[in-house]
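Q: what does this look like with 2'-deoxycytidine-5'-monophosphate bound?
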Amino acid sequence: MNNSRLMTPFAGPAVGDVSLPGSKSHMNRALLCAALSEGRSRLSGVLFADDTEAMLEAIVSLGATVEVDRENFEIEVTGLAGAPNFRDLVIDARSSGTTSRFLLPTLAGGSGVVTLDGAQQLRSRPFAEQIEALRYLGCDLEELGALGQLPVKISSQGLEGGEVEISAETSSQFISGLMLAAPLYTNGLKIRLTGLLVSRPYLELTVKVMRDFGVSVEKPDEFTYVVPPGRYLATEARIEPDASAASYFFAAASITQGRVKVVGLHRESYQGDVQFVDVMEQLGAKVVWGENFIEVEGDRIRGGTFDLRDFSDTAQTLAAVAAFAESDIEITGIGFIRRKETDRIAGMVAELAKCGVEAIESEDGLIVRPDLWSLRGASIDTYGDHRMAMSMALLSLRIPRIVINDHDCVAKTFPDFFSCLEELRPKVKPRGEVVAVAAIDGPAGSGKSTVARLLASELDLPHFDTGAMYRAVVVAALRAGIDPENQDAMTDLAEKTEISISELIIIDGVDATDEIRTPQINEWVSVVAANPGVRRALVARQRKWATEIGGGVMEGRDIGTEVFPDAIFKAFLTAQPEVRARRRYEESSVQTLGDVKEDLERRDRIDSTRADSPLQVASGAVVIDTSELTIQEVVSDLASMFRSVMED
Ligand code: DC
């Protein structure tokens, strides 16, 4: 398990600017164009990751001269000025789909004998359509393993090109590869797409990068690309930040109700994955499109149906966001991602389920049915897929005890992913400079009171039980013979009753520590807590308490939603209903277990359906299912999260 990473939730808003590494998609296209160009190209803002190292190695083995400046993220490439020559060469594309599918048609346009191979994972990915198209164009290709898969031996003497049809349903990379190689073919190439096209923006990216290197592609209609024969010209290209990688950070803003700015992306970006931002907006986030940045500010996360055919690399990101949505999120148009690094649909469904999130596979996507009360940590398998690791890591922003297995797989496109994410962790000034409230909300029996008390003592912070305040008002009413259903009289009591809450609960000078927990008070308290006048009065008193003493651990039902919605640290404790009932039953045996359960359900119902501040998970709150944890485990999880947000 040493390649497993235990994540620590944020429990607060992700805030900051992120500078992301260069786009793999942009970079591998530019590297190949530079390698085939006449002259010396300079690429800046480049990405050093497994997929781009694979392409770099490949172009060097084909004879391009490469100078790498890792510190300044720059690469200079002196190109071959045309098609490559090779003799019994073996190219290892590692796990890189772009490297292998971009190179295959280029190798077919070169001369000599070469074998294109890759890691086991790449060997099991599809190549059949591209192999077939190249055979049709006259290339001699031999699959050394399974048909339609790598390794492939290519014996080439250049290609004439002409016209070819290819299915666009499995991967747009097949088509991009043909387009990139086409200037090498004697007659250029007319590519006709058949079937439903997936990921069209990637073809547009190919066209744009080719144009940067002096080759213009014509598109006489939606399904035809015409590439003239010719020569790429060296250029200076700035690689855009990776828009697929940006999706994780926009999602982090949405999930935690934070604010994240990604520099270097904009509306006109080359990459189709910037469209993910529109999805965030439709879900409820606020978006600012700058000239050279995109900023997302999290807000509500509504449900909805989204077709991600054109930017499917963000489908897992959206599925992760969906775990925290207010209602179902359906993702369509992405059946083909079953054949990426792994079956991404099955993978997400299985890993979300481990975290208590119901997701159902459909023919061309999945539906996520979130239930925030059921979220729980789990050990997450990543199936050698960088996007599984990065998207499931997003759940850990608000769920403790998430472990990402084989987290190193992010090296494929984003080696520094985890440290970049860490940079967005909220930080607050020491207590005294701000009102540092740790908001602990949750239903009865979730363990909230015990946890909040112990957490306060562990962190050496004041503790405030707001539920005791509502109970105290009921005690005052019953003492004075006031009907708890008399709204005005109760509001008056909530404003005037002297309530002191510490170890002992003192109401108008009289100890009521035990009295506030009796079944008679239980019976009335939810009704009284649903009285808007009472709430208004008590919320004001609670805010005053925290503000005067600089904050502390406050527990209740609406601390994160109403009393301190800007609390820097929010937690929502839950437990399965049976567990909560048993806990309450074991605390006091006055009632039978059945009665306790019934009473609990009744109070849950009133608390979570009342019009005024219903009990619900505050946006951005970390959700902790305490059913299978000890109190000490919960306290120590919360303490380490809280410490991680306090500035040293
Ligand atoms: O946490 P408790 O069981 O002592 O809370 C008593 C009641 O008060 C419960 O029915 C919900 C209500 N309450 C509330 O509405 N808002 C709070 N901040 C705290 C408690």
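The two ends are 31 Å apart (CA to CA). Residues 444, 466-467, 470-471, 525-526, 529, 556-558, 603, 607 surround 2'-deoxycytidine-5'-monophosphate (CB under 6 Å).
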